[in-house]
Structures are given as C-alpha cells and as structure tokens.
Amino acid sequence: MKAWRRFLLAVMLCAALSVTAAAASDDQGWPRVFQKDGKELTVYQPQVDFWQDYKVLHARFAIAVKTGAKKEEKYGVVETEAQTVVDQDARTVALIPKSRELRFPNTSDSEAAALKAVADELYPPGQALVVSLDRILAYLDPEKQPQQPPVELNYDPPRIFFSDEPAILVMFMGEPQLKPVAKDMPALMFAVNTNWDVFYDTTSQRYFLLDGDAWLTTGDLAQGAWTATSELPEGLTKLPADENWADVRAQVPGKTYQNPPRVFVSTEPAELVLTQGEPAFSPIPGTKLMRVANTDSDLFLSTPGNVYYLLVAGRWFRATSLDAAWTPASADLPADFALIPDSDPAAHVKSSVPGTVEAQDAILLASIPRATEVAVDQAPQSAAVYDGEPKFATIPSTTVQYAVNSPQQVFLVDGGYYWCSQGTWLTSSSPSGPWTFCTTVPAAIYSIPPSHPSHNVTYVTVQSSTPSTVVYTQTAGYSGEYVAATGVLMFGAGILVGALIADNWNDDHHYYYPPYPVPYSYGCGARYSYAYGGYYRGAAAYGPYGGAGAAARYNPATGTYSRGAYAYGPGGSVSARQAYNPYTGARGGALRVDTDYGSAGRGAAYNPSTGTAVRGGYRSNDQGTVGGIKTNRGTGAVGWDTENSQGAVVKGRGDNVYAGKDGTVYKRDDSGEWSSNSGSGWDSVDKPERASMSSQSAGESAGAKNRPAVSTTQTSQTKAASGQATKARPAQTAQTTQARPTQTASKPQPSATTRVAPRESTRSLESQASARQRGNQLTHQVGTQRQAGGAGRVQRR
Q1: Predicted pLDDT at 520
Q2: Is there a contact between 98 and 56 (Cβ–Cβ < 8 Å)?
Q3: How confident is the model at residue 647 (pLDDT cuts 50, 70, 90)?
Q4: What local confidence, expressed as pLDDT, does residue 526 receive?
Q5: Helix 762-787 crosses helix 695-705 at what angle (to 10 degrees)?
Q6: What is the pLDDT of residues 552-570, one digit of tens each?
Q7: Helix, strand, coil % (nearest 5) of the chain?
Q8: What is the pLDDT of residue 274?
Q9: CA gap 619, 614 in Å, rounded
Q10: Partners of 214 in the beta sheet?
C-alpha cells in the first residue's frame, strides 16, 4: 500500500500555506537569528498559551529587529495561532501559522510598518517554525489537555525469579507447544510459543536451547538441569535453507559454554531479576531508599523495615526478601520514591510514581495522537489469515465478536467485518476480504474492556475523512501503554490478560500461532523511557527476540513459520535481532520498523570486552542538515540549512527574553531581576513576588509551578485506584467522525488575537521562565539519552 503515508505537511499544504520541509528538522536551540542584506531578525523561544486538541497551538514570542545600518534593536511581540504537525520520532512540532500578529510597542505607524516588513521578509508569515515537543509540553497544564482516560488494570505480580549468577528466562505462553520444523522432518520439533529457539529431538528425547552462539540441553523441560553441549541432533544440520532459519543454521554446531547459565523455565508470565553477584546497594540522597546498583532491573531496598521494591511494566511490587513472595505496591508506594533527585541514576522511575510531574509528563506524551492518512482508492494488499474456517467468539459484556483463529485483530459487528491493521481500520462484508479503508467504526468496538487482549484497538480512531482520503489517529494505548487508576502509564493490562493468552494456547482454535497480537506485560523487563517516548524492553536475559511474547508464527495458508525475529508490531513489520547476551556482556539494541507509508531505524551496540560502541540511524523521509559554525570571537553557532529556513542558533546570546501578554517585552537576568522594554530601552521592574529561583529549586519545581499540585500520599493513591477507573469516558469532539470516546476534551480557549490589558505580573513571568527552563532541561535530557543508545522498544507482535 504505497499510498499510505505519514500525516505530515501534506495536509497543511491543502490550506495553501507556505510550508517548507521544516518539520523534518530538529530544534537545535534558541534564540534564532535570520539575516539578509544587513538586516537581522532574532526570534526568541515561543511561550505556549494552549494547544487545542494537539492540533492548534496559540503562542507568543519576543523578537528583535535590526534594520540597515542601525545598531539598535527594536523589540516586539509576535502572537500566533498555528496548525501543528507532530513528529514524535524526532520529538518536534512544526508550527504552521494560521494567523500572526506583530506588535512593536510605542512606535509610530510608519516605523512599526517598516519593522514588520523586515520581519516578514526574513521570517515569512506562512513559514513553519520547528520547536521541540518537550519545550511545548513543559508549558501545558495536564488538566486542560486531552488525555488517555484511566482504565482498570491488574496489579498482581507475575512469577519473579532471582539469580545472582548468570541466568536466562525461557518463558512459554502456556504449556509448551511443539510442532515439526518441516513436514519431512517429523523427528525434529520446534517450540512455537516461546521467543527462544527451543527444539525437541524425538529420537534422543532431549530438548536443545540456542543461547547466542552456544547450545544447552536437558531431558526435562520443566525441572531438569540444563548443560552445555556440542552434540546436536542430525535434524539441526538439515534445517530449511531459508532466511527464517539462517541465524540458527549459522550456530550449528556452535560453541561450547565453559560456565553455562542457569535456565529458568516458566509457562506463565514471569520476570527475572539478575544481579552480578550479591546485591550491591547505593544510598539515594534525601531518601531512605537504597538502589541495587549491580542489576539492570529497577530494584530498591527501603530501609524502614528492609523491604524490597521492584518496578516492572509500570507496576510496583514489594517483598521482604528477594526469594520471598511479591505483592502489589503500586497503590501505596512510600513517599520517598517521589523524592529521588533528578541527578540520581534511578530518577527515571519517577515516571511510574503516582503524583509526580514525571508521571504527568508520561501520560501527556502518550496522549498525543499519531496520525496516518490513506487514499481510499488504493485497496489494501493485506490478507487476513485463519487456521481453517474463520471462527468468531463474543467478547464478554459486549456485542462484538473477534476472530479466535487468526493472528490479526478481526471483529464481527452487526454482520460487518472490521480489521484493525497498522493503526488503520479496514472493513469488508466477508471475513477474508476484499478489504477497504473504513470511514466509520462501530461504537460497539470501543466498548471492548481492558480485561480483553483486544482492548488496544479502542485507541485507534477515524479522525476525519473525505471522498478521497481517511485520516486515522492512534495514541499510545494502541501499543499497550495504558493509563492506570493510580495516575501512571503502565505497559499491558497485567497478569490476568497474560494468563488468558497463555490459556488460549490449549484450546482448539489456537493451534499454530499466538492467539492475540497484543502486548504481554511481562517477560521482557519492560521499562519506561521518556526520552524514547514509551516502554522498551530491558537489557536482560529475556531471549534473542525481545521477549514480550514475541513467539514464532505459523501461517496455515503457506505452511511456513515466521520465528520471533520476524514478528510484527503496530508500526508494521519489525525485525529485532539479539538484544543482549548476559554472559559476554555484549548488547545490541538495533530495531527497524517498516511500513507501507515510511520507514525509520535506529541502532546502537556496545561491547565491553573491546570498549567499542557503534550507533547508527536512518529515516526514509526528507531530513534537514545541520552544520557547525564558528565565529572569530570564539562563540559557537549551529546553522540550519537554508532550505528549511529555520535561522541560526546563536549560543552566545541568552535565551532570557520573553513576550508578555500585555504586549511588552521582558528580560530576566541571572540574579532573577526582571526588566521591561516598551520601545524605549530597558527599565527595571519590581522584584518577583516569589524568591528568585536557585539553580537546584528551578530544576526540581519548574514543571510543578506550571501545573496543579498532585498529592502523593497513600490515601490519595488508594482512593484513585479504587475510583478513577470507573469513571465514564467523555464524549469526543464534534469534528471527529469516530464513535470512540477517547480523551477528555480541552477547555475553550481565547482567540489568537485576544490581548490582556493588565501589566504582566512578575508571578506570571516567573511561571513562564520556569516552564522554559524545564522545557530546556527535558530537551537536553532527551537528546543526551538518545545519543547514549539503549534497548529497543517493546513492540506488539
């Protein structure tokens, strides 16, 4: 379906706006300077007033204009209402002005007209301006933004194994299912419901497990000890000569372990906590917590009572020892977790601590829609596959039936068939097609409860349609990232859904392949990363293909297998090779996503034995280029390419100038003092009503000053857990043709040209400065963490 494409600038071009390729560029910093023929325009960082439904953004920003030979800058305020195009992979937002008003206070009409002419020449009114998504989010009040609603999730712990020596977790989805590798090779069986390469030789009655480039064997899959071996069954030397088995053939006969790992086997959702020797503890300043420093898991010891806390898939569990039974802790987490300093290596866990700004950030980021536009006259080339005749069963408490013997998410509603595929909806009068793009999805589909594995499709909606195109949107819920009643973002619906998936392996319908293409909460060490915008598999011993139930697939139409390395997720086909070898320490996070409407790839690898690191990345769409500039004064600048016309980011110039709502330009110095410029130079203003921010308090409270406070007490969390999930979901906005009630509607906002008459208060200015500082910190944090590489994102199968 080559007609598929990202919903980027093409939609905005229909509005006859002069839009460049700016959306493909990055936000390299502020302020930005535009120069031409001796004229100069400085644009300071935008200040966001509101972002209506993540579509229309109202912002103000200060500018400074130099004309001709005049050395003096004239300051002004630009107020704009802009259509937005979000590139979540690049973490940027292109602001495409719908309206723009320039004001130069205390200037004559003729001078103001001349200044406006220079500004319009250097920065044309219809030109897009690219801003970091994180800078924008720092300004937003979560209560005024559409958000994924909280749903009822399960907080029960999975089976948790612990080892202080090298170990791996081989997790089956239900009882092991063994099938012949090929029809002419009945003696060699392959386990299809695990993401490891597990074979069974009927002649020797032994199991063989490939771990990296070495083999292990046992005679008892459930209880037996695994030993290293180089004596492999003859069938492994005769594997089918296709790419599907290429990586296995390359390891026959393989190497032999000197010290084979311990192997944990589970037929239910499970996690593995692996430390390098006895647990080593590192105290967290300002708290009574100690971080276990020699593990990839998020593991802590709370010294009051010496209780362990473990974070997995956004859920907290506690135990009195690492070998004891674990119990849920998400609803009554100790307050110390919210006090972890931003500089601590464990600071990332605050995204999963109820009541923190980081938890609000995660939900906001998850709620921003991704849009895809398709041409209705291009028939989808995909085909739904069934094991035998299509079979459907009713989803409890709904009128919706779902296909129980297909790896695709196909539904039957009121005699019509609907298939949610790669973030779009297809429809047909037959379960086998032909399929066409759907412009209206039955409301009943959006009643699928979180307890059912197909709940994730309720986060894919039809945003709009014309006779020639359909625009679909999806939020992070489609990838299995749900908002819990505790006010945090969690991965998957939890242990009950995982058990349901496992149980269904044993019924008559699901004979050859995993029954549900949905997120498996456990079995991959799922960890949230704000920098990458979602949940990622942890770098641990969860299998060569990423865990999360990325088992093999069997296509009954062709009689062929597609193993874990070729499972596919919400963005299309995904190839994710070996992510971690716990014995050599070699890691690889390469992940490629291909779809019919674009492709993107990122990769990173590090080998501690050689000390070398390799990182790479590519994108299929147009990208801007950035080149370094040095001046003879020693100040640095980053020049944006002229095609994208984003100006030059001048590092030697402070990003401390603000546009007041009263039309005055303000500046904040390093000591926290404010001055104003109303057209005749800078004048001191009253000191802020609050004490000026210190370097520490500014970083820790910037977001909180711009957002409502959220209690982190046990009482409020418990109350949230018991009550929020039962709230009805609000209705959608009228513009949306989709029936699903998804997100809370934004409150009405003033128009782009509304002016605030009273003089800007220093309290308001401090709030703006706090938001800017926090946005800068988030942007820097995201860039730093992305450059450092990391594990691949958890993908749906």
Answers
A1: 67
A2: yes
A3: low
A4: 84
A5: 100
A6: 443 333 344 444 433 322 2
A7: 20, 30, 50
A8: 92
A9: 17
A10: 211, 255
- Output the DSSP codes for 719-768: HHHHHGGGSPPPPPPTT-------SPPPPP---TT----SPPPHHHHHHH
How many beta carbons lie within 10 A of that of residue 586, not counting itself?
16
| pLDDT given at position 150 | 96
224/204 Cα distance (integer angstroms)? 15
Distance CA 184, CA 305 (A): 60
Amino acid of residue 520: Y
Check pLDDT > 80 for residue 62.
Answer: yes
Region 5-144: CATH code: 3.15.10
Question: Is residue 618 helix, strand or coil?
Answer: strand
pLDDT at 388: 85
- 495 in Cβ contact with 148 (< 8 Å): no
Phi, psi (degrees; rounded to nearest 5) at 695? -60, -30
The tokens for 544 are 């060569």
Give the containing element (helix H, strand E) for 362: helix 357-367
**CATH 3.15.10 domain locations along the chain:** 5-144
Query: Whole-angstrom Cα distance, residue 164 to residue 272?
Result: 11
Cβ within 8 Å of residue 782, ≥6 positions away: 91, 134, 530, 531
Confidence of residue 544 (pLDDT cuts 50, 70, 90): low
Please give the model's pTM, rounded to 2 decimal places. 0.78
Name the amino acid, one letter, at 558: T
Mean pLDDT of 520-528: 82
With 0-12 CB in 10 A as exposed, 13-18 as middle and 19+ as buried, what is 205? exposed
Q: Rounded to whole angstroms, how far apart are CA atoms 684 and 750? A: 30
Q: How far is CA 157 from CA 9, 315, 319, in A?
A: 45, 8, 11
Whole-angstrom Cα distance, residue 122 to residue 40?
A: 8
The answer to whether 526 and 275 have CB atoms below 8 angstroms apart is no
Per-residue three-class SS string for 489-553: EEECCCHHHHHHHHHHHHCCCCCCCCCCCCCCCCCCCCEEECCCCEEECCCCCCCCCCCCCCCCE
CA 153/CA 10 separation, integer angstroms: 38
The rounded distance, in Å, linking the Cα atoms of 698 and 587 is: 36
Amino acid (1-letter code) at residue 768: Q
Report the C-alpha dihedral over residues 32, 36, 38, 44, rounded to 10 degrees: -20
Max Cα–Cα distance, the chain, nearest Å:
96
Kindly give the interhelix angle for 695-705 and 357-367, rounded to the nearest 10 degrees.
Answer: 50
Closest CA to 551 of 141, 283, 247, 173: 173
Structure tokens at 318: 């506690």
Q: Are 574 and 795 in contact (CB under 8 A)?
A: yes
Q: What span, in angstroms and rounded, lies between the C-alpha atoms of 680 and 522?
A: 63
In the predicted structure, residue 159 carries a pLDDT above the cut 90: yes
- Give the helix/strand (H/E) hosting 605: strand 598-607
Say how far apart CA 523 and CA 409 lie, in whole Å: 22
Rounded Cα distance, 568 and 593, in Å: 9
Vertex 185 angle, CA 180 and 186, to 5° = 55
Half-sphere exposure of 472 (CA within 13 A, CB side): 26
356 phi and psi, to 5 degrees? -90, 155
Q: Which residue reads 């598999």 in tokens? A: 537
The three-state DSSP-derived secondary structure of 470-500 is EEEEECHHHHCEEEECCCCEEECCCHHHHHH
Instruction: Reply yes or no on whether the pLDDT at 214 is more than 50.
Output: yes
